[in-house]
Amino acid sequence: MTRQLIISTGLKSVGYDAVAHVIEVELLSGRIQRYFDVPQPVYEALKAALSKTQYFNDNVAGKYESCQIV
Questions:
Q1: Tell me: the pLDDT tens digits for 32-68?
Q2: Rounded to whole angstroms, how far apart are CA atoms 63 and 6?
Q3: For residues 16 and 23, is the Cβ–Cβ distance under 8 A?
Q4: Cα→Cα distances 4→17, 26, 62, Å
Q5: Which structural domain, as residue segments, surrounds residue 28?
Q6: From CA 3, how far away is CA 43, in angstroms rounded?
Q7: Strands (E), the chain
Q8: Which end of the chain is more exposed for a tag (fewer CB within 10 A), N or C?
Q9: Which residues are 5's β-sheet partners?
Q10: CA torsion sign, 70 to 50 to 8 to 55?
Q11: What is the pTM of this model?
Q12: Total of domains in the chain
């Protein structure tokens, strides 16, 4: 999955697989996490949010099944 670099205080890059409905997030710490069954509007809202870290924490982390990649 290709991730796009973003400007954020806690996130480095994000990507989305529209077929599998998976968000992949790289944190500034270098950890990469995948979140499953995430609707595309949630990903679009994450990219558009003024505070991407806050949106991620409020709407993705802990809300969807996930696994750590790195």
A1: 999 999 999 999 999 999 999 999 999 999 999 999 9
A2: 21
A3: yes
A4: 12, 10, 22
A5: 4-68
A6: 12
A7: 4-5, 11-17, 22-27, 32-35, 66-68
A8: C
A9: 13
A10: negative
A11: 0.93
A12: 1
